[in-house]
Design brief:
2-enoyl-CoA Hydratase, Chain A, domain 1, elongated, alpha/beta, 10 strands, eight-stranded mixed β-sheet, 10 helices, two-stranded parallel sheet
Length: about 300
């Protein structure tokens, strides 16, 4: 093989390498332009249940987890935005959403519109960034358990209400009697435990010390501006800014598409919800104006 042939082969080899490199770079560059940000709405109280057309909206964590999973499996989706307007919810349901957000394979940004309080704020802490407007209501790191004592009302109405139980604490929190000091202590310990867990999660997710979180918690609500000063959120801005941040975290440069994830409800589901609500209301009659006489779940 003469010298010219060798040079020709080397030249062709070099061109091939350069061509492969150019194609790879083009693929990388083109993939960063365009793409989609998926919006997952969290609107209403968080809990296990279905949306009620005659009552308040309920955000079921299973539906949110499904929407996040669908966004992760869609190759066109580069990032996820949680669109939050919620007063909070039950501890388990709120933590389920938070864990799904925290473990997402794609960047997640939370945008708090009117309210991202209590359990809704807990869910938001699992995201990569939290954005809120100046006037948004943020925080309320605390726990509440509602109890209703109707014993005096029953007495005035001439209603003698009682129960037959097996177990010393089985009727603890029943609406026909006051809590004993011992029962009060038991329930308080449960609320305290949930509160401590709430603060631990916030401290871990927001990279703050637990002592610091404890000092600003106490169930207080903050404006978006105050929350940013306290390091509870990352940025002040509206939904468009939150979308831009999500797109940037997803590696999108330039324009992008926005798609809202939904969980379709069948007609049978809707009919069942309406029927059960109407039947429940008719069955309760005037009693529907009163709280259910049982211990309410602790609420974030």
């Amino acid at each position: 093989m003469n010298k010219n042939t060798k040079l020709l082969i080397l030249g062709l080899g070099g061109l091939s390498v350069m061509a492969v490199f150019a194609v790879a770079m083009l693929a990388i560059i083109s993939s960063s332009f365009g793409g989609t940000v998926a919006v997952v709405p969290i609107q209403g109280q968080i809990g296990y249940g279905s949306a009620n057309v005659l009552g308040g909206s309920v955000v079921n964590p299973e539906k949110i987890k499904t929407q996040i999973r669908n966004a992760e499996e869609d190759s066109s989706v580069r990032a996820i935005l949680l669109d939050i307007n919620s007063p909070g919810g039950t501890p388990v349901a709120s933590e389920e959403i938070m864990n799904a957000v925290k473990n997402s394979k794609k960047p997640v940004v939370s945008w708090i519109s009117d309210s991202g309080a209590s359990g809704a704020y807990l869910a938001a802490t699992g995201s990569d960034k939290i954005v809120a407007s100046n006037s948004s209501m943020v925080g309320s790191i605390g726990v509440i358990m509602d109890l209703t004592n109707l014993s005096e009302l029953y007495e005035k109405l001439g209603v003698n209400r009682s129960s037959i139980t097996a177990g010393k604490y089985k009727d603890m929190g029943a609406d026909y009697k006051n809590l004993t000091p011992e029962e009060q202590s038991i329930l308080q310990s449960m609320v305290n435990e949930n509160y401590d867990n709430f603060m631990t999660i916030v401290a871990e997710n927001r990279n703050l010390s637990k002592d610091y979180v404890s000092s600003i918690a106490e169930g207080r609500i903050y404006t978006g501006k105050q929350a940013k000063d306290l390091k509870l959120i990352d940025e002040i801005g509206g939904k468009d800014k939150a979308l831009d941040i999500a797109a940037k975290l997803g590696g999108i440069h330039g324009s992008y598409k926005v798609v809202t994830m939904t969980s379709p409800q069948s007609f049978d589901d809707l009919l069942s919800t309406v029927s059960s609500k109407i039947g429940y209301s008719i069955g309760k009659g005037i009693g529907s104006l009163l709280e259910e006489n049982s211990i309410q779940n602790a609420m974030y």
